[in-house]
Amino acid sequence: GSPEKISELHEHTDKVDSIQFCHSGERFVSGSRDGTARIWKLHLRQRWRCILLNMSATLPGAELVSEEESYFKPKVTMVAWDRHDNTVVTAVNNHLLKVWNSYTGQLLHILKGHEAEVFVLEPHPFDARIILSAGH
């Protein structure tokens, strides 16, 4: 048979540029230009529920944002799952990678070091602590 649309989700307010199923196939993550990623799971009666990941989130005890940073509009450029589906990594257009608990949506880590936007995220096939990232 031919492919057919079974659902259309409207929670993002701008274009979705990245999307990826978790390894178990039970959930997927979508990343959008609206500054959010969402972790989706199909629940009873074919209803989708999602956990919101807001790219403006900071870690507890983080420094206050400068005035210039407060005008910055974050966009998700790429998403990826770790090998065991416990965390989601999002690449943000401010050159940061953010690591999230995929079950609660809690921001766990912010990884710095890129000098340009990241468009490639590749998790290690065995070690959930390792992910490759590349940008241009």
UniProtKB/TrEMBL annotation:
GO BP term (any one): regulation of cell shape
Alphabetized UniProt keyword annotations: WD repeat
Membrane found in the keyword field: no
Membrane spanning residue stretches: none
WD repeat coordinates: 9-42
Gene3D superfamilies with a match to the protein in the record: YVTN repeat-like/Quinoprotein amine dehydrogenase (2.130.10.10)
The protein, known as: Bromodomain and WD repeat domain containing 1
SUPFAM superfamilies, per the entry: WD40 repeat-like
Domain of life, source organism: Eukaryota
InterPro entries xref list: Bromo_WD_repeat, WD40/YVTN_repeat-like_dom_sf, WD40_repeat_dom_sf, WD40_rpt
GO CC aspect terms: nucleus
